Amino acid sequence: THYLPPGLEYLNQLDQIIIHQQVDLLEAILGTETSSKYEIKNHLGQRVYFAVEENGCFDRKLCSPIRSFTIRIADNTGQEVIRVLRPLRCNSCWFPCFLQELEVESPPGTIAGYVVQNWDPFLPKFTIQNQSKEDVLKIIGPYATCGCFDDVDFEVKALNEMTTIGKISKYWSGFVNNVFTNTANFGIQVPVDLDVRIKAVMIGACFLIDLMFFENSLDGL
C-alpha cells in the first residue's frame, strides 16, 4: 500500500485522467494571453481537481512556451493538494545542459517527483523521477507533434523503453474550437496501481508537454 498524501486519495482509484483547459473569452476575442485554468476530471467527466497557472504578464507575452510558472491544483473543497513548479529553462536540443526540469509537490512543500527532459535530436523524451530523483518511467513522444486532425500520443514506457504502460494524449477537439480558443484537452492513461505521487507527477508532465509543443501551435494545424 502506497502512502497517500492528503488530497491524492482519489487518484488511487484512477487509471485515466482527463485535463481540459477552460476557455477564456477575453483571450479568445482579443488574443490576449491570460493565465491558464484547467479542470482535471475522471473518465466519467466528473471534476476531481481545478488547476490555475500563476506567472507574470511579462512571462506570458515574451517567454510564452518556455515561461516559468507555478500551477496550483486544488480539490473540490478548494484545498491545494498539488503544486507544479517550472523554472525558465531552454527549449532547444542544441542546449542539452539546460533542458526542461519540472518539480511536483504534494502536499505543497513536499517533493512528489520530477519531470526531466532528455536530450534527443529527433524525439521528445522525458524521464519521470520520484522524490529521491530516482528514475521511474520514461515518456517518449512522436517525431512530429502536429496532429493534423488526429490525436497525438506520448507513450509512457518502462525504463528500458521497450514496454509501454500508458500514454499522454493530446485530443483533437475540432477545427473551430482549436483555431479560435486554442484550448488543451489531454488524457493520461496509467496503471491503476501506480504510486499516486507518480500519478501527480504525470499531471505535471502533461502541463509541460502542453506548453512545450501545443501552446502556440494552434493544436496541430
Description:
This protein is α+β, with helices and mostly antiparallel strands and 221 residues long. It has one domain (23-217). It is 17% helix and 34% strand. A 12-stranded antiparallel barrel has the order 1-2-3-4-5-6-7-8-9-10-11-12. The protein is globular, with a radius of gyration of 16 Å. The relative contact order is 0.18.
End-to-end distance: 44 Å
Helix/strand order: EHEEHEEEEEEEEHEH
State Rg: 16 Å
| Whole-number mean pLDDT | 81
Number of domains: 1
Question: Strand share of the residues?
Answer: 25-35%
> Which stretches are low in confidence, meaning pLDDT under 50 for 5 or more residues running?
174-182, 217-221
The chain-level structural class is alpha+beta
Number of helices: 4
Main sheet: strands, sense, barrel? 12 strands, antiparallel, barrel
Shape: globular
Care to count the β-strands? Answer: 12
Going across the biggest sheet, name each strand in turn.
1-2-3-4-5-6-7-8-9-10-11-12
